[in-house]
Write a structure and sequence with these properties.
Bound molecules: zinc ion
Structural class: alpha/beta
Number of helices: 11
Number of strands: 20
Radius of gyration: 25 Å
Shape: globular
Largest sheet: 14 strands, mixed
Helix content: 10-25%
Distance between the termini: 28 Å
Number of domains: 2
CATH class of the largest domain: Alpha Beta
CATH architecture of the largest domain: 3-Layer(aba) Sandwich
CATH superfamily of the largest domain: Zn peptidases
């Protein structure tokens, strides 16, 4: 508590002090999230819809192991025991070796006092994607875990495993890949007798993935581009479909995931898995971090692991396809419509200039009306370089337009409002030293310019 700030902002009438500026809430949003979810722009093809319906018809065996009668049990992880209603931090070795570096990674395990599913939340499968590590670091902190907080071990049903940085060697090198140059997310389920990354994938697979009921994998776009917050999930996998919706944000891209990806491999062995994408690599996009935290808590509430009702978006875009916007020229890019923009057919989304030919510029147009879910951030382009990834939209446009900000960008559910991890004490006080010429801030205005000190605003 900062008593000084509290009293200062209560009595000080000067409107430009940093404390009062901070107190002001962001511009009011017209529509608070109190509406029923409305499905718009359901872009799934009739064929894909049938596949999904069929998958939901198949009865999934009801998991008996967390029936209420079974009572609380100790959670076993990597030969370590976690008692019901407790939190334990564990170092998990990525490599099973007696000599040399075993690459231990920290895992926080919150084991509830009531039975329930095991949910694993991962960040930095790609070591340079930092939105996941940030979101999960906050989630492991005292603002979210502890008595009376969102994740209260005594109120928790089931087990939450939080792994802020799974690819710690890549993270330390600021690299997407493992030190052997391989992409962990193309090597699942891995092989314990193969290359280094494949061995690690297999160890993660056996110890962490196969012992989970649900996985949430947090990513960002690869270098040179940035993603509007979105979920990727195979909607024909019933558990993943439910989780994708439970995250509570607007955009879901329906696909299986690349070969060897964690999501695809997990789904194939019956484990629900969704990927969150938000922001770009090597950057800490606060909106994407905030939406990630919001979504994870929503998913945990939907699974009835933590108390409270999940938030739902105004609408959902279920996309099974997209359009790429490409540059037809070479040069340097100036993006006019950032990721998250709703663009019109024929709208100029970027311009390209060539420093070797000053005075000439080329416009890049959107080929259709839709939502830009990703844009390039690296300005260098040649003819054919993708500069934007667009979900073309034919329906639901009016609903979507109601949730656009003044720049025409979608206000993602969970992004409006104050960041939940910042406390008043974390707001820095900046002091400016010196003295007022003439004795007070307005003294130098002179008598004519300023009527009297009493009328000071
Ligand atoms: Zn990634």
């Amino acid at each position: 508590m900062n008593l000084f700030r509290e009293s200062l902002s209560a009595t000080d009438d000067e409107d430009k002090s940093p404390s009062t500026a901070k107190k002001k809430s962001p511009a009011p949003r017209k529509n608070r999230r109190r509406h029923k979810p409305l499905k718009v722009a359901n872009q799934l093809s009739p064929k894909r819809r049938k596949e999904i319906e069929k998958a939901f018809e198949r009865k999934s065996p009801s998991p008996k192991k967390w029936s209420r009668e079974s009572g609380p049990k100790t959670h076993l992880f990597d030969r370590k025991r976690i008692k019901p209603g407790s939190i334990r931090k564990i170092d998990f070795n990525l490599l099973d070796v007696e000599i040399g570096d075993s690459w231990p990674i920290p895992i926080t395990i919150i084991h509830g006092s009531r039975p329930g599913p095991v949910v694993t939340i991962l960040g930095a499968v790609h070591g340079n994607e930092l939105v996941g590590p940030l979101a999960l670091t906050y989630l492991c902190g005292p603002n979210f875990i502890g008595p009376g907080e969102d994740i209260d071990p005594s109120m928790l049903s089931g087990t939450i495993r939080i792994i802020p940085i799974i690819n710690l060697p890549g993270y330390r090198r600021q690299s997407r890949k493992f030190p052997d140059g391989r992409d962990l997310n193309r090597n699942f389920p891995g092989n314990r007798e193969s290359n280094t990354t494949s061995r690690i994938a297999n160890r993660i697979w056996e110890s962490i993935i196969q012992t989970s009921d649900h996985i949430i994998d947090l990513h960002t776009a690869a270098p040179g581009r940035t993603n509007m917050p979105q979920i990727r999930a195979n909607l024909a996998h019933p558990e993943s479909n439910r989780m994708a919706r439970s995250f509570g944000i607007e955009t879901i891209l329906d696909n299986e995931g690349p070969k060897g990806s964690l999501r695809r491999a997990a789904n194939r062995s019956g484990i629900g898995c969704i990927t969150y994408e938000g922001g770009g690599s090597n950057e800490a996009d606060p909106e994407s971090v905030q939406v990630a935290i919001y979504g994870v808590l929503n998913a945990l509430r939907s699974l009835r692991m933590i108390p409270g009702y999940p938030n739902r978006p105004h609408f959902r875009i279920l996309a099974s396809g997209s359009v790429w916007i490409r540059s037809d020229q070479g040069g340097l890019l100036d993006i006019l419509a950032p990721a998250g923009s709703f663009v019109d057919d024929g709208e100029v989304v970027a311009t390209i200039t060539d420093p070797e030919r000053p005075g000439i510029s080329h416009d890049v147009y959107s080929p259709s009306k839709g939502l830009l879910i990703c844009t390039a951030t690296h300005p260098f382009v040649t003819a054919g370089t993708p500069i934007g990834h667009l979900l073309p939209m034919k329906s639901g446009i009016r609903t979507l337009q109601k949730r656009l900000d003044e720049e025409g960008c979608l206000i993602i559910s969970g992004s409006d409002g104050e960041p939940p991890w910042r406390e008043d004490d974390d707001v820095e006080d900046i002091s400016v030293e010196g003295e007022w010429s003439g004795g007070n801030p307005d003294a130098e205005w002179g008598q004519n310019e300023h009527p009297s000190p009493e009328e000071e605003s």
